[in-house]
Amino acid sequence: MPSKRLKKIYKNLKYKYRLVIYNESTLDMEYSFFLSQLNVILALCSLLLIGMLLSFLIITFTPVKYYLPGFGEAGVRKQLRELMVETEKLKTKQRENDLWTENIRQVLSGEIPSDKIHIQEAMPNDSSKK
Fold it and tell me: Is 17 helix (H, G, I), strand (E, B) or coil?
């Protein structure tokens, strides 16, 4: 059985208050409402729920979601992966070119005799497949 304290709180929540809105210049009563604290709490909770639902729908079904961190267009992510692979290929090719240039410099400066150089076959070029 609920305690007397809970009964008193519930009774206070259900107690009706009269809200009257007057026209300030004529002092005529414009609106009159009978409200309880429970009605006001329920109305505010309903407005909050509707606002959250509306925000969720706007974010989900409009392009606004692309402005949030972690979201993005699927095509952009695919392009990013392709660019990362291409960047790694270019870095590898640059290292090979730097090594080749350094070897040529050493041969021309006489640090390495030309008869000690072993020529390796060129690696297949991936760009020829496209």
Answer: strand
Average of per-residue pLDDT values in the chain: 84
The pLDDT of residue 130 is 45
125 DSSP 8-state letter: P
Q: Is 113 helix (H, G, I), strand (E, B) or coil?
A: coil
How far CA 62 is from CA of 32, 72, 91, in Å, comes to 40, 12, 39
DSSP reduced 3-state for 111 = coil
DSSP annotation of 114 reads: G
Per-residue pLDDT, 126: 56
The torsion angles phi and psi of 126, rounded to 5 degrees, stand at -70, -25
Output Rg (C-alpha) for the chain, integer angstroms. 38
pLDDT digits (tens, 9 = 90+) for 58-105: 998 988 887 887 777 767 778 888 999 999 999 999 999 999 898 888
SS3 string, 18-87, reads EEEEECCCCCCEEEEEEEEHHHHHHHHHHHHHHHHHHHHHHHHHCHHHHHCCCCCCHHHHHHHHHHHHHH
